[in-house]
C-alpha cells in the first residue's frame, strides 16, 4: 500500500523552519508507506509522529530514539509495528477520534497507542468498553494463574503451622488439588443431600412419633442422622475458618453466611429445648424451635459450593439486575392497571369476587403470569375481556427480558471456560519457558522451580520471557514480561 510515495522533505534549518505547513514526513510501518503533512501532525505535538518533525535537526541519535530505522536517501522513517493498528491510530490526525477495527486485540491496540504516544481519551467509548472487558479478562487470568502458583509454591521461611494452615485450606477448598480432597468434597456433597432428604422425610406423619404430651416429633433415628450431618458441617466450617488466609473476607462471604444459616438453627433449637422451658412457656419454645427448624432449608444452597452450574447461574443473575428490574417494572405496571380495571368492571355484577383493588392485585398476578388458580375470576363480559388482554400482556412482558438474561448466562458460562483454558495455557507456556525452550509436561519441574524462588508471583529466575503481543502486569513486577494468551487469539 503506497500513498504519495514521491513526496520529499524540504530543506530545514536550526531555527525549526520544518514546522511550516509545507513539511511532510514519510513513514513505513510494517511495509505500509504513508505520507503525513506537518499541519496535521502539529495538532497533537506530543505524539511520536509529531516529534519526527523536529528530530532531523537533532542528528541520528534523535532520529533513532523515535524510530527503528531511517533511510537518508529516501528520507523515510521505518517502524517495525502493526500496520493494521497504525491505520486506525492515524485517524486521530484527521477525525479527532480512533476506532478499533474488528479482529484487533484491544490490549495489543492499547500498546500500539502507547508506542505512538496517542492518549487513550481519543479512543471512542464503544472501543473503550471492549478494552475494559479485555482488561478484566486478563486480571482474572492473572488471578487464576497466581492461585495455582501459590498452591505449587512452598516458602521455606514459613513456619510449620503456616504451611499446615495452607495445606488444610487447599485440602478443603480445592478438590482438584489431590485425590483425598476430591473424596472430602464428595462426602460433603453427600452429607448435604442426606440432610436435605432427612428434613423432608421427617415431615411424613407416618414416620413421626408422639411424645408424652401428645405432640408429634421427628423419629429419633432421623434426629440422629441430622445430628451427624450437623457435626460434619460444623467441623468443616470451623476448619475452613481456622485455615482461611483472610478471615474477615471468609466470614462475610455469601456462601459462608449460608453455611452459618444452615448450622445455627440446630444449636439454637437445641439450646431452647433444654433451657428455654425454664425462661418461657413451653408452647412458645416449641413455636420458636419449629420456626428455626424451617431455616434448615438454607443448607440446600450449600450445593452451590460444589456445582459450577449453580455458581454460573448466580453470577449471571447478578449481571442481569437491569433486565430483572425491567421485568418487575413491566409486571408491576400491568398488575396495577389491570387490577384497577378488573375491579371497576366487576362492580356491576352482584356476585363479584373483586372486593377491592388491593385484593385484585392477587388476581392480576396469577393472570399475567398465566398461573390462573381460579379462586378469583371475572364474571362480566368486560371483565373477561380485560382478563384476556392482561394475560396476553403478561406473556409479552415476561418474554421480552428473558432473552437478554439467557444471553448473559451463556456469555458468562463461555467466558469462564475460555478463562480456564487461557490460565492452563499460560501455565504451559511458563513451564515450557522454564525448560529453556524444551517441551516438558512434568509438573514436578514446575514445583522445583517454585521452591527455588523467593519472590512472588514468579518463584524462580529461570522462568523466561515468552515473546508475544500482550502482557499481564499482575503476574510480574517486571513490565517487559509478555505472554501469549488464548483469549487474545
TrEMBL record:
Q: Which GO terms describe its biological process?
A: action potential; protein homooligomerization
The protein's matches in SUPFAM superfamilies, at most eight in alphabetical order, are given as:
POZ domain, Voltage-gated potassium channels
Q: Which domain of life is it from?
A: Eukaryota
Answer whether the UniProt record assigns the keyword Magnesium to this protein.
no
Give the transmembrane ranges.
Answer: 183-204, 248-270, 324-341, 385-406
Q: Does the keyword Transmembrane apply?
A: yes
The record places domain Ion transport at 182-416
Domain Potassium channel tetramerisation-type BTB, by residue range, is 25-126
- Primary localisation category: membrane
**Which Gene Ontology terms cover its molecular function?**
voltage-gated potassium channel activity
Q: Which keywords does this Swiss-Prot/TrEMBL entry list?
A: Cell membrane, Coiled coil, Ion channel, Ion transport, Membrane, Potassium, Potassium channel, Potassium transport, Transmembrane, Transmembrane helix, Transport, Voltage-gated channel
Pfam families reported in the protein's UniProt record = BTB_2, Ion_trans
GO CC terms in record:
voltage-gated potassium channel complex
Coiled-coil parts of chain: 415-452
Localization annotation? Cell membrane
- How is this protein situated with respect to the membrane? Multi-pass membrane protein
Cited InterPro entries: Ion_trans_dom, K_chnl_volt-dep_Kv, K_chnl_volt-dep_Kv5/Kv9, KCNF1-like_BTB_POZ, SKP1/BTB/POZ_sf, T1-type_BTB, VG_K_chnl, Volt_channel_dom_sf
Which PANTHER family does the record match to this protein? POTASSIUM VOLTAGE-GATED CHANNEL SUBFAMILY F MEMBER 1 (PTHR11537:SF171), VOLTAGE-GATED POTASSIUM CHANNEL (PTHR11537)
Per the record, the similarity remark reads: Belongs to the potassium channel family. F (TC 1.A.1.2) subfamily. Kv5.1/KCNF1 sub-subfamily.
Spell out the subunit comment.
Heterotetramer with KCNB1 or KCNB2.
Purpose = Regulatory alpha-subunit of the voltage-gated potassium (Kv) channel which, when coassembled with KCNB1 or KCNB2, can modulate their expression and their gating kinetics by acting on deactivation upon repolarization and inactivation during maintained depolarization. Accelerates inactivation but has relatively little effect on deactivation. Coexpression with KCNB1 or KCNB2 markedly slows inactivation.
Q: What is this protein called?
A: Voltage-gated potassium channel regulatory subunit KCNF1
Q: Which organism is it from?
A: Tricholaema leucomelas
